[in-house]
Structure formats: structure tokens, C-alpha cells
Amino acid sequence: MTLCISLSARPSNNGTRFHNHLYEQLGLNWIYKAFAPMDLAQAIAGVRGLGIRGCAVSMPYKEDVIALVDAMDPSAKAIDSVNTIVNDGGRLTAYNTDYTAIEQLLRSNEVPLDYSVQVKGSGGMAKATVAALRDAGFKDVTVIARNEKAGRALAGLYGFKWKAELDGGTADMVINVTPVGMAGGPDAESLSFPEESIAAAKVVFDVVALPAETPLIRAARAAGKTVITGAEVATIQALEQFVLYTGVRPTPEQIKEAEEFMRAQ
Length: 265
What we know:
By secondary structure, this protein is an alpha/beta fold. Helix content is 39%, strand content 19%. Strand 5 and strand 6 form a beta hairpin. It is globular, with a radius of gyration of 18 Å.
């Protein structure tokens, strides 16, 4: 049996259900498990030493894990953020499928490139998001981050603006890439953007995948806004991880079934 795992400060069943459902549907003798590591370096050493084929990496480890791998695929190296590790005979290569998910969702939702955008956060997922915005052709982007060093660096890297706080500013599209609204966290019931920002926005995007309907997404739906959810991000990035691990790309029908199974928990 081949083992794949995920490492997260607050593990969810999303990835386990998605991957394990596809393993079963495709007749693969594989299994996927989720863990909350007590020591990241020891966890990655375990991936190498135990021959674990694949490892998904979630907040807050997407940058810390860089020093623990052997090689960086361009998808991860370009943004210094990792969400996927593939183990080839003890050699660990890091990838980033978050970028792919963000890019695909911006395109499939046909978000106009002239929209002003506010991105709240400056961590690993924010890097993937801001890079995808730049590469898609968005010009008017502001990174909102209290951490001035990280926020300025992220915004400057892609030629965008930085602000420590919203300060009443609004945008056509708001994107939350912080843990605010995440199930099990201290801010699980909080809005990552205030009501006035939601009211002014045309598109509201929350990368938080658990729950599928975060307070921000619920408020945006109630206000009649176009929404892009973290659950959608989770499906696409998990699919690309599945392909990297197994070398198999499921059919659209199999992907849809796995997504429905994942969300039915």
C-alpha cells in the first residue's frame, strides 16, 4: 500500500475524503491520512524515511518547509511557497498547486482584469494568490497586511500596493487569505472583511476551505455577490496533487463524484 499525507495546524477531512474516494474509484492500493505535526522537521524526515509518496502542506508550514526539501519545482520556487511534496525514492521535490487553483478560478469566473483588488494576508497562500493575479493581468491590487515587512515585500515583489489596514477603502474584488473564518480557529465566526467592503465589492473570494460556507461567503451570498470559495480552491489544488502523486488524471465525472463526496461530510 502507498501512503500519502497532509500536514496542517488544523487538519480537516477534505483532502482525505477527496483522495481516498479517487483511490477507491480507480482501484489504487493507496491511502491518504491527515496529521497535525508537533515538529515539522521530524514530520518531513518521516516522509523521507518511511517512503511516504506525497505530502500536502497547509498553513502555517508553506514557507517553513522550504528548508527541508531537496528541490523546488518552478511552481513553488517562483513564489517561495510550498503546498505539495513528492517523494521519489527519498528525494523530496516541492510544488505549489494553490497557484494553479487560483489562476483557474479567476479565469473560469471571468473576473474582469480592470477590477480593483484587495488581498488580505501575506503568508504562503497570499503569495500564490498575488502571483496568480499578477500573471493573469490584474494591475490595481493592494495587499492588506499588518505585518509591514511581509506585506511590503509581497506587494513590492509584484509591483502592487501595500496597506496595513483597510482604512475604509473598498475594491471590486476582495480576497481573504488569512485564517479568519476558518473552522476551529479563534476567529471562526468573524468576517475577514467588514460589511461595507462586501457591499462595495462585485466579487468576494475566500480561500478558507473549511467550512465551505465561511462567514464571509455567507455574507457575500446574502448580498447577491459573485463568490469564489475555498472549497473550490481545495478541489482544484487537491486534484493537481493527486496527479503529481499518482501520475493518473481522473475523468471529469470522477472528479465531480470525489468533490461531492468530500463536501458531503
